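Structure, all eight chains, one model.
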Amino acid sequence: MNEGFADLGYARPDLDREQRSGLPEVVYGPGKSPEAITGVVRELLAANTGPVLVTRIEAGAAAEVAVPGGTYDAAARLLVWRPASARGFRVVVASAGTSDAPVAAEAAAVASAVGLDVHEIRDVGVAGLHRLLAEREVLGAADTVVCVAGMEGALASVIGGLVGCPVIAVPTSVGYGAALEGVTALLAMLTSCAAGVVVVNIDSGFGAAMAAHRLAHAARR
Amino acid sequence: MNEGFADLGYARPDLDREQRSGLPEVVYGPGKSPEAITGVVRELLAANTGPVLVTRIEAGAAAEVAVPGGTYDAAARLLVWRPASARGFRVVVASAGTSDAPVAAEAAAVASAVGLDVHEIRDVGVAGLHRLLAEREVLGAADTVVCVAGMEGALASVIGGLVGCPVIAVPTSVGYGAALEGVTALLAMLTSCAAGVVVVNIDSGFGAAMAAHRLAHAARR
Amino acid sequence: MNEGFADLGYARPDLDREQRSGLPEVVYGPGKSPEAITGVVRELLAANTGPVLVTRIEAGAAAEVAVPGGTYDAAARLLVWRPASARGFRVVVASAGTSDAPVAAEAAAVASAVGLDVHEIRDVGVAGLHRLLAEREVLGAADTVVCVAGMEGALASVIGGLVGCPVIAVPTSVGYGAALEGVTALLAMLTSCAAGVVVVNIDSGFGAAMAAHRLAHAARR
Amino acid sequence: MNEGFADLGYARPDLDREQRSGLPEVVYGPGKSPEAITGVVRELLAANTGPVLVTRIEAGAAAEVAVPGGTYDAAARLLVWRPASARGFRVVVASAGTSDAPVAAEAAAVASAVGLDVHEIRDVGVAGLHRLLAEREVLGAADTVVCVAGMEGALASVIGGLVGCPVIAVPTSVGYGAALEGVTALLAMLTSCAAGVVVVNIDSGFGAAMAAHRLAHAARR
Amino acid sequence: MNEGFADLGYARPDLDREQRSGLPEVVYGPGKSPEAITGVVRELLAANTGPVLVTRIEAGAAAEVAVPGGTYDAAARLLVWRPASARGFRVVVASAGTSDAPVAAEAAAVASAVGLDVHEIRDVGVAGLHRLLAEREVLGAADTVVCVAGMEGALASVIGGLVGCPVIAVPTSVGYGAALEGVTALLAMLTSCAAGVVVVNIDSGFGAAMAAHRLAHAARR
Amino acid sequence: MNEGFADLGYARPDLDREQRSGLPEVVYGPGKSPEAITGVVRELLAANTGPVLVTRIEAGAAAEVAVPGGTYDAAARLLVWRPASARGFRVVVASAGTSDAPVAAEAAAVASAVGLDVHEIRDVGVAGLHRLLAEREVLGAADTVVCVAGMEGALASVIGGLVGCPVIAVPTSVGYGAALEGVTALLAMLTSCAAGVVVVNIDSGFGAAMAAHRLAHAARR
Amino acid sequence: MNEGFADLGYARPDLDREQRSGLPEVVYGPGKSPEAITGVVRELLAANTGPVLVTRIEAGAAAEVAVPGGTYDAAARLLVWRPASARGFRVVVASAGTSDAPVAAEAAAVASAVGLDVHEIRDVGVAGLHRLLAEREVLGAADTVVCVAGMEGALASVIGGLVGCPVIAVPTSVGYGAALEGVTALLAMLTSCAAGVVVVNIDSGFGAAMAAHRLAHAARR
Amino acid sequence: MNEGFADLGYARPDLDREQRSGLPEVVYGPGKSPEAITGVVRELLAANTGPVLVTRIEAGAAAEVAVPGGTYDAAARLLVWRPASARGFRVVVASAGTSDAPVAAEAAAVASAVGLDVHEIRDVGVAGLHRLLAEREVLGAADTVVCVAGMEGALASVIGGLVGCPVIAVPTSVGYGAALEGVTALLAMLTSCAAGVVVVNIDSGFGAAMAAHRLAHAARR
């Protein structure tokens, strides 16, 4: 452990990440047994003082993780211990359609767990622009907007043109056919005509929240 | 010729298309010599009474086509004989950025040549939404909107949400990297969240104009 | 509601779309609970006077939507309230093979629900051209042809060459291997040698019907 | 040479291919110097008695190949020594558009050089079906049809439905945008709804001619 | 029926294909109910005199098709009525690995059903070349070789270099990762260094057999 | 102009973007004539008070832009008027190889022009990790790191693991073959195992700089 | 069998591979019945003296293979008879994340079975570089490193820069969205900035082990 | 320099790579000026004692590099100082076609420069298998075979089946159409049915040589 990690044989949790970079070590749930998750979470709780997260974990598996004190968010499929208290960095999570809800929920829950102030705006896709324009004030007060959209992902460009703060675009796999399981939204967001929009992986609400966490870190210095 | 086409050896112009479907036979310029174009245009002018078009022809080649009475539009790279007079079907050609101008010009020039009323709106990309919203009245009066955009092609979705008339989306190869030479805009337009938007091939201002021509045909019946 | 939409928390139905563009607000079924669908449908029925549709909904879920007066079409997987009466715009839905039937059924049912006159022609793929040519009269009388085909999608080009009215091509995911789940038909239709053919997303019978609805709107002005 | 090949250092011409399989050794021109081509051609002429071909060679380079007795076909970019005399196997080379001409020319010239009876039909794309149907008799008399088409490649399906003889489809790189430099035509031909159509590489008139040569070989046994 | 097809409402079997092109009308099983298959098979048996085939049909569905006289081949998933008797055209079906067996079985069974003499060689992949070279005599006596291979598909090139008769390559979806579900074998076969190899769709044993049938047709004239 | 944009016919510069979002309107050079650029730049300088930029403009064209007071940066291909003075937001631009220099130069020059403090670290690719580790102190003091890398883009993951501040990854088109003109680096950066790394378009040094500008904006509030 | 293979009808095990190349004949499990596997394994055990392997076989099927003396490794899904004893060639199998464990297990188990000395290092992804650097001594003592990583696959580049011995990179299908089921890691490893890294197919722990076996063979000569 | 690298501002040559890993630091020529190359080469020659290489440099640029003692290989486009003397590790570079010669030349020249014994076999593509089989003795004596092939890349599988030593496959961009600029050969080599074949990037003769160098390193320990 004096090397900055624990060696559990099957995993090496990075125990000094929190210290090194201010980022929590997060456990990616899929493919891990509740026992393995239990082991890693214990190590992380013991070695650090900040929040510990397990992402993309189903309710059944979450119930089997034998570490007290965690809370489970079913919509976000997230387990959290020691969530950070909010420190005044405002993140607006805007999503285009109701099918984008799970990804938006992950972004919102992870961002809350690491201490950001989260406000959600749902179902503001650009085919009914007035729904988005009604939220201009909320968007204008944001420190960062996380923009969640599938299909053609146009919401990122429209929001990127409305605000000057960072816009983190999350393409989702919502859609069919030419949506190519999120690749179309991904490519569209990367080629947004609104300057300075940044993009994370398809369906990665988690990635967007961690990017927002990095921004809050920079803003606080 | 009683078979409905001429056999020039190197080409078989479809002489009864005008009669059969109301669509002009159009000569696609690239890869054809001025002599070959001259031969085909003569056949078409002789056998029909409507407009005859040569698309994507550069000024130098256009000057060598030895058929009197044609007019050349350099921006659209289009040669036209016997343009149709306008018959009251209003087509608005809206383009997202100044780099989309050549494709928009082709759409506008072909549409005019086949007898549509064309109005152009330029540089109304969604990153500055007020530029588009200032044209709501023009859009609302359109019988059809041709929407020309590269990069992420979001303009099609926004216009598709504003109007109830047909929206023909033309993806362009404008952009770099993840724009994939127009494939991204193409995919985005096909997955537009605005219902009933239709799409033509990348950079095909011609295709959009011909589609509008088909619509005008349906509307007039 | 004076903002033109209802805020149900989980969704913001666009209540003035009908007024704004003549297009119905349509609920995309997949991923929504019967309760959520019930809530949105009620809002839409209350705020508007036209048809309300739920697409791609299986029989089981449809039975649980607690809004009286709807009718369910199993072949099209469509729920409809207040279908519009036909207003004389003739749409021919032509499909290439028997496997394309579900997509053709969706196109036909949605088109009927929004007030178009629909005529279906089935199993007219180009490998047996006489089957299609036997329907030339029907095709010639159409205001619009919706062309549904998978595999190589050649039907769109052949029909596009036979008629002068709008041809809306719907690629389907029928086929295997190099059919690439509909991408091949999509690309083929986009590059059709018949001028002015327009294309919607893979398997989107709904999109084609809405495009036809926009055309009827333009034709009626 | 008793090993069945010559070792020129830079190349090992396969001297017993003609004997082994009845197929000529063909020299692919691009990237080879006239001197290298000269060396290989001399070996092949000395070791065998049949035709010797150099494909895709430009006029300038062809003129520098220092082996007497060859004839150059500029349209096909083909150099031939000792062409075979025709032996009554009828190959029809049908091409969709005038831009497909160079590929069709290569197919026709190579097929002639190896002793097939070639008949060309040009500009019979499916957008004007009557142009193709006027040639039904010619197609019906073919031992094999080579079908050359770019864009959406629908010609292969239509011809495949009209005839019972082998149909060898050659996709071409003609078209732009979604034509993807011939990939769309290739995929479309591979998924043709006409059973038993076979496909060669994009723009490979040569490959189609050699396939026809193999067929003639089988037919003669 | 005097139009050359029957109109069953849900399908239009092409009744004069046998007469027109010598090819049987074949029913593609997936997605069709046993009742629908029964109806089409009856029409085809009544209107023609040759073989009638249903491909890719599982044993359970095959048992429910209510048309007497058919035989079912489980390995090939093929139902056949009135198989043709062999007429002396020798087809060798060579497959690279044991996992390619189902595709090879379909090719062999369909080819037999339409009257070809079939000989199978299995597990002759190029990693153990002596296994293939031991069959040189069989290959040399073939009128056509159908070459079935997944993964990198190299077998087609090696066989194409050994024989002068037609080689019909069938890529299979055998393999994982970079095999891309058969796309790699498909591309590799299309770019074979052996001249004149032709290719059909991924896993299409049926397509290869029908192509061989067309060849036999040409050979017999 | 009271609509917030100027209508120059060929372009509609967005005159209130600076006011609306704090972002400068930037002119993308390619495809625009020096005259057109001159016209737009004049409008922007007159209507706003902040920096005005023209990106990706070659030296020859830059010299023809007839607006006094601009400075040209050849490495970055950037023209700037009224650059902002630095306001203490530290951006480190780290690049993997010497071939990535032009993209890094664009990022650095644009970031400087909009008022960020820029520090460059060059040639710190991960194949020689000690070169990067020697800069840990510089990286640790950054408010944001822009990470520029082509080929496999691994630098983003390594830096993302070392620092807690925002990491903006810019994939470049450096590399050949499987580098796929930057697509590989793009995909790799999007799937980085370091949480919260964000990505912009291939070769878009400009996009990264504008994203950093948005971050600085958020940090200053 | 004097031809160097056995002909079991359904398979032709290559009996002289061991003699010819020192490589064992390995049976790929998927798609084969326990009976077929039993037959092939018996032939191989009888004809050779070295190890015999069956890969990717699930526990249930493995239990049904009726050949005594085999041992089953569940993590690696591997059945082995007559494993070779270790001969002092040190292979380090390093994996990036815990989800890569199954592929690493296959690599390790196959390498052990063919007589290599295997040492595993797990969970040393580059986002926590100190975990890898703590193993520099182990890496430095390796004769070969097998590097197993999904997502962006950066581990191969970092290890490639640290050691001079052969580095065999195995991309895995771990990750989602832009990871494209392992294609991203594959492309990234192929374009590694560390010179001389070699790559095998996605998830092919087996391929990496066999490559290491070939290396050991070369090293021993 | 005590940090193990030199900081030239524009580049950081890795001065202790030779010591750390036994691999030379190699300068990739494209995009670097002769002056920059001169600077880096001088640093490397001064800091180390082994060979220094510049790859992919054209004759003109090579002549301007102002460092005495280098030799230029035009076929390989390689500049070398202080080539290592051969140490008895036999590398056979086998190439499929004459168009693959430049890539084979780079592999051979780099391998020689770093001290390997190189033997070249050219034009042994699998379409004429006897050309390859005539070299079985040479292949059998190799410590490693580098296999260079474009198009379908089948040579790697055939050689992989013939020898037990390491086989390093180099796909080339030779071919057209479905060859996809080398991607097809790359995919085919990765899915080779011959176990344990490893692959490097398209056209990377350099990568293959460096991989062979790593093997020699392992073999010598």
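Chain G has nine helices and nine strands.
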